[in-house]
Amino acid sequence: MAAGSIVIDLLLKTGAFEGDTKRAQKSWENFTGGVKAGAAVLGTAVVAAGAATTAFAVSIANQGRELQNMANISSAGVEEFQKWAVSAKTVGIEQEKLGDIFKDTQDKIGDYIATGGGELKEFFEEIAPKVGLTAQEMAKLSGPQALGAFYNALEKSGKSQKEIVFYMESIADEATALQPLLANNGAELKRLGAEAEVAGRIM
Questions:
Q1: pLDDT at 78 over 90
Q2: Under 8 Å between Cβ of 165 and 63
Q3: Confidence of residue 141 (pLDDT cuts 50, 70, 90)
Q4: What pLDDT is stored for residue 42 in this prediction?
Q5: ∠ CA 81-139-187 to the nearest 5 degrees?
Q6: DSSP secondary structure string for all residues of 132-198
Q7: Distance of CA 99 to the CA centre of its chain
Q8: What is the pLDDT of residues 166-201, one digit of tens each?
């Protein structure tokens, strides 16, 4: 082969090599760019997942505090209050209102013990003695237990439905709505509470 031909051939091959090199470099840059972009997307997803997990944890903590506050107001355990709250929702009573009902129940009992009067005077002097119940005994109960004892006394004393409604409203506003849960010694309340616990709805 002539010297000129050799030079031309080398130049052509060199040019082809440089072209291949540039193409390879470009492919590498595209690949690494894709990896970086993928890593960025993955990093964003991880951060978002972490934020969602944190928000969920905060939400659970807030719910826990709210439940504890409601239970304290009711002088009840958190588990006891939750079972009541789940059950009360089936009759249209939300947990905030439920806490108010239990608090009012305890306040009315305390008022009678302190003054010998109040809205439960007739109940403690005419109904409670017939079923062997005293204000002092009821004062030792949690709000839910005291309300249950109150309703049971009304049932055992043979009061009519109209009279029961009157007494229930005298102990707490909207307490009448809880009658289906309190009837038959709280049979429906126990059933709904047990179902909620099995379903994992009780914290």
A1: yes
A2: no
A3: very high
A4: 41
A5: 45
A6: T--HHHHHTS-HHHHHHHHHHHHHHTT--HHHHHHHHHHHSTTGGGGHHHHHHHHHHHHHHHHHHHH
A7: 15
A8: 999 999 999 999 999 999 999 999 999 999 999 998
Other C-beta atoms closer than 10 Å to the C-beta of 191 total: 12
Mean pLDDT of 91-117: 96
**Residue 54 burial by CB count (10 A; 0-12/13-18/19+): exposed, middle or buried?**
exposed
Distance (Å, whole) CA 70 – CA 82: 9
Distances (CA, A) of 113 to 40, 62, 120, 140, 164: 68, 36, 10, 12, 22
pLDDT of residue 68: 83
Dist. CA 30–CA 191, nearest whole Å: 64
CA dihedral sign, ordered 25, 27, 32, 37: positive
Rg (CA), the chain: 37
Question: How confident is the model at residue 100, as a pLDDT?
Answer: 96
Q: How far apart are CA 64 and CA 60, in angstroms?
A: 6
Mean pLDDT of the chain: 81
Position 116 scores a pLDDT of: 95
